[in-house]
Write a structure and sequence with these properties.
This protein is mostly helical. The chain is built from 11 helices and 2 strands, in the order H-H-H-H-H-H-E-E-H-H-H-H-H.
Length: about 280
């Protein structure tokens, strides 16, 4: 069942990412992140109350680390959308293949979860392929690459913290708490940057589908994290995301890729899939 949760979460993330790409064409990244975080709060609240798991976590450390996770999630969301507003969807999204690899390193350093030498070899291969995907030769030429790298680091730290604190809270409450922190952080950012505080624009269908995708992705991912390692969850999710990004970018967004970029995309996909097996 945990793998089914992970598969459904991965597909929901792809749907959500596509909607964000479309919406950032007419809205600031900060506003898009805030609106999605705000309007999914009632969903998490209702789910928390409806599941009958309305008991609050008793461990105080939970609130500290879960709040830090929310802060990193907000930073990652804004960085991600900022990147999409600058570069090609089919090129930038594969950068997130670095997220499970960074998560594995963070788990080793912070939580003493050491992986095999095969896993770290794959980390190196995937990092090199991602670097070559972003430009020509050894120069990174894709706009928005810096923001996407920041998103990868932020979300890697976020998912490690999620895995650490989830034993102390229900999935629904953790989703609610993290999202509350995100809303507060993003609201404060909007207030300090008033020129970004505009009414949402863009097609309503993208907002509606994005909200459904976001809520489903978060709840399903947290459910999978109860049984699977953070690096495995990220690896499978990103592999599916890379395939979808290349298809969506070529078919729907009419983005042109060079043959060598497809080659490195395939290398990244196989790297993260093999990584998920050697770390299981």
């Amino acid at each position: 069942m945990s793998w089914l949760f992970l598969l459904l979460a991965s597909l929901a993330w792809v749907l959500f990412d596509f909607c964000r790409k479309r919406l950032v064409e007419n809205n600031s990244p900060l506003l898009v992140s805030f609106v999605f975080s705000l309007f999914t709060l009632p969903v998490y609240l209702v789910f928390w109350l409806a599941t009958g798991s309305s008991q609050l976590p008793q461990v105080m450390a939970y609130y500290v680390f879960a709040s830090l996770s929310g802060l990193l999630a907000a930073l990652g969301a804004v960085s991600f959308i900022s990147a999409l507003g600058r570069g090609r969807f089919s090129i930038l999204l594969p950068m997130l293949a670095l997220t499970p690899l960074i998560a594995a390193l963070l788990n080793a350093v912070v939580f003493s979860n050491i992986l095999s030498w095969q896993a770290y070899t794959i980390i190196g291969i995937c990092a090199y392929a991602t670097y070559r995907l972003l430009g020509e030769g050894f120069a990174i030429t894709e706009p928005g690459a810096g923001f996407m790298l920041l998103a990868a680091f932020s979300w890697a730290g976020c998912i490690c913290l999620d895995q650490f604190v989830l034993p102390h809270a229900s999935v629904s409450f953790h989703a609610l708490w993290v999202n509350v922190i995100m809303v507060l952080v993003l609201f404060c950012s909007l207030v300090t940057r008033r020129k970004s505080a505009l009414l949402p624009r863009g097609r309503k269908i993208y907002w509606a589908i994005g909200l459904c995708g976001f809520a489903a992705a978060v709840l399903l991912q947290f459910s999978a994290l109860r049984y699977l390692d953070a690096s495995i969850v990220e690896a499978v999710k990103r592999a599916i995301g890379i395939v979808a990004a290349m298809i969506v970018g070529s078919v729907f967004l009419r983005e042109k890729l060079r043959p060598y970029q497809y080659v490195y995309g395939v290398i990244i996909i196989f790297s993260v899939l093999i990584f998920s097996f050697v770390t299981e």
